[in-house]
């Protein structure tokens, strides 16, 4: 019988990829400095019609680091970033490390309550945010936090195009009680902070879990985690400094921090940013910059496939397109390759694994499980062990469904100030992901669903993901989300929420019949409700808990 210790997935590895990855850098700041030495004047960031070189990022981050030190920031302090995908994010990140501090990345969609929780939990002393976010949200939160310095900046910096699709009505505004980032950089221009170094175990980032099953927890991503995951992406996809990274994933999220920022630093390669997602702006970016690599949530690819103006040529430069953060249905993966000739590769990971733990080899067709219909998320990346366990923690054989467990160099040091939660989820230096899945005999892994989302219909287990995939096989369906709702006879029964593709129509009865033909009687949805949009996190995960639980 195949065992996990035999690592059957090794036979699927891309040519030249070793089972173990040897670290090249002890910390992320050293990685940045190495890139600076190699290519100081190469284009590092493109932002609409503006660009920054590594030398310019180095100079600006030196100045900002000196400003932070002058404001009393000490080693180990936390600096919170509350920004969209703008160049200042990268400048502030490098400056934070140069000042010896830990970066706290905050979702720019966070409202007052959420921002207040993250600032209080992290104990951040500095907040760097967009001017409009300060005006709308942060000004009410900062007075009750430990923040002593607020630095604001504008999304209009570093470019002159000011695309009206994104920036209509936006103007630069200076708010009382704040410092301006550009003014601080000018004030401290030419000054250099003291040299500093980090151990691989030092915390580089506090990235907060999405909170889909509870209050967000601060994952302590170390410098060693960051450099390992950047190297993993580079080596797995065969990326070089000639590649162009499309930064469509939110920079605040672990995917954006690793697959956008850390990876582009490591190569070093151009990182293309465009503030926030807009499908028209994204198409313009694809046409103008011809990016070769990206990691994006599946809704991004669905939006591209649904855009009537999108062509095969628009996608032709993307030789390495990966999708993570939310499950990819086989139907949508097939539609995308048929429409554009571009394969969407699966990638799986969590905030706690500093992005990728499993990836589909570049160019490979991930298998689809014939029983569940799930598309494989890939195989464990180098130096990584993944297992499927039962409720007692014992290994399950290939094909058996259980909880996915991961161990490896990308596993975070724990949760910030939560030792009990850390021990529960990561005791023994292996992560209980909360995701349910299985491994086949060839070593391919499949994610079935979240453990807490299982529906119990008359004693039968129903995994929402399987029903969602079947719904997405219908030509009219864009996206689907399935939940359990109370039922007097069955205890729980299946309800689906569906969005339709533009210009398509289908009735509830037709969709139920579509599922009934393809699924066991206890699995197909008994009711379907149509929605314009499903509630999601910014990384594309459907928030099933926000869907009504009634017939």
From TrEMBL:
GO terms for molecular function: acid-thiol ligase activity. PROSITE patterns: AMP_BINDING. Keywords: Ligase. It holds the Pfam family AMP-binding_C. Residues 32-416 form the AMP-dependent synthetase/ligase domain. Residues 466-541 form the AMP-binding enzyme C-terminal domain. The keyword Ligase applies. Belongs to the ATP-dependent AMP-binding enzyme family. This is Unannotated protein. It comes from freshwater metagenome.
């Amino acid at each position: 019988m195949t065992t996990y210790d035999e690592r059957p997935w090794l036979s699927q590895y891309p040519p030249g990829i070793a089972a173990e990855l040897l670290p090249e850098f002890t910390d992320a700041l050293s990685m940045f400095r190495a890139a600076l030495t190699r290519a100081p004047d190469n284009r590092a960031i493109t932002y609409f019609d503006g660009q920054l070189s590594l030398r310019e990022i180095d100079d600006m981050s030196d100045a900002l680091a000196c400003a932070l030190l002058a404001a009393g920031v000490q080693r180990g302090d936390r600096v919170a970033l509350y920004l969209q995908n703008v160049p200042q994010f990268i400048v502030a990140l490098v400056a934070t490390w140069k000042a010896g501090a830990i970066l706290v990345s905050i979702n720019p969609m966070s409202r007052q309550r959420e921002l207040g929780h993250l600032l209080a939990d992290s104990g951040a002393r500095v907040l760097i945010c967009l001017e409009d976010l300060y005006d709308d949200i942060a000004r009410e939160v900062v007075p009750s936090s430990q923040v002593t310095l607020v630095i604001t900046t504008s999304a209009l910096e570093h470019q002159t195009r000011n695309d009206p699709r994104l920036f209509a009505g936006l103007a630069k505004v200076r708010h009382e009680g704040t410092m301006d980032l550009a003014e601080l950089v000018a004030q401290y221009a030419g000054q250099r902070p003291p040299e500093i170094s980090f151990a691989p175990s030092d915390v580089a980032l506090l990235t907060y879990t999405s909170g889909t099953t509870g209050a967000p927890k601060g994952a302590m991503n170390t410098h060693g985690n960051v450099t390992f995951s950047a190297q993993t992406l580079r080596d797995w996809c065969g990326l070089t400094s000639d590649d162009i990274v499309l930064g469509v994933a939110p920079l605040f999220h672990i995917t954006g921090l690793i697959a956008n920022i850390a990876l582009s630093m490591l190569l070093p390669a151009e990182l293309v940013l465009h503030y926030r997602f807009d499908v028209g702006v994204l198409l313009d970016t694809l046409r103008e910059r011809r990016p070769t690599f990206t990691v994006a949530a599946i809704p991004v690819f669905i939006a591209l496939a649904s855009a009537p103006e999108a062509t095969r040529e628009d996608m032709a430069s993307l030789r390495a397109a990966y999708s993570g953060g939310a499950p990819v249905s086989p139907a949508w993966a097939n539609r995308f390759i048929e429409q554009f000739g571009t394969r969407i590769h699966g990638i799986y990971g969590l905030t706690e694994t500093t992005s990728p733990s499993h990836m589909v080899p570049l160019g490979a067709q991930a298998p689809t499980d014939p029983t569940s219909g799930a598309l494989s998320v890939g195989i464990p990346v180098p130096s990584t062990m993944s297992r499927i366990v039962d409720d007692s923690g014992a290994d399950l054989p290939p094909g058996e469904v259980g909880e996915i467990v991961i161990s490896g160099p990308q596993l975070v040091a724990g949760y910030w100030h939560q030792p009990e939660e850390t021990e529960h989820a990561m005791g023994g230096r292996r992560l209980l992901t909360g995701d349910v899945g299985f491994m086949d005999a060839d070593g391919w892994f499949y994610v079935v669903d979240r453990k807490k989302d299982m529906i119990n219909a008359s004693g039968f287990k129903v995994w929402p993901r399987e029903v969602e995939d079947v719904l997405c096989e219908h030509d009219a369906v864009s996206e689907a989300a399935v939940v359990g709702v109370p039922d007097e006879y069955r205890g729980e029964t299946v309800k689906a929420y569906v969005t339709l593709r533009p210009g398509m129509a289908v009735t509830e009865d037709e969709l139920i019949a579509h599922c009934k033909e393809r699924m066991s009687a206890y699995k197909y949805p008994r009711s379907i409700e149509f929605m314009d949009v499903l509630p999601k996190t910014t990384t594309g995960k459907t928030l099933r808990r926000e869907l009504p639980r009634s017939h």
